Amino acid sequence: MWVFGRTLQLLGMGNVLVGLYVGLTEEQGMGPELTMLAIGSVLFLLGRLLEGRAR
Q1: In this structure, which of 12, 22, 25, 28 has its CB flanked by the most CB atoms within 10 Å?
Q2: Where is 45: in which H helix or E strand?
Q3: Which of 22, 50, 53, 52 has the alpha carbon at shortest distance from 35?
Q4: DSSP label at 9?
Q5: How far apart are CA 15 and CA 54, in angstroms?
Q6: How many domains does the chain have?
Q7: 3-state SS assignment for residue 25
């Protein structure tokens, strides 16, 4: 369960990074950037909760 939680955290951070890239490179990128930020944050927090329960 610990590895799954860490994987979700990594996916969440990667999603936020891609969202930042989209927001900086596309002309109308603010909407997708915020959507990807929200999804990445939820993934990261889920991974954080799962990691904490595994210890």
Answers
A1: 12
A2: helix 30-54
A3: 22
A4: H
A5: 24
A6: 1
A7: helix
Phi, psi of 27 (to 5 degrees): -65, -45
> Among all chains, which residue has been given the structure tokens 């944050």?
41
pTM for the structure as a whole: 0.87
pLDDT in tens, 12-48: 999 999 999 999 999 998 999 999 999 999 999 999 9
Cα(53)–Cα(34) distance, integer angstroms = 29
Domain hosting 25: range is 2-54
Distances (CA, A) of 44 to 20, 26, 28, 29, 52: 16, 25, 26, 22, 12
Contact 18, 4 (CB under 8 A): no
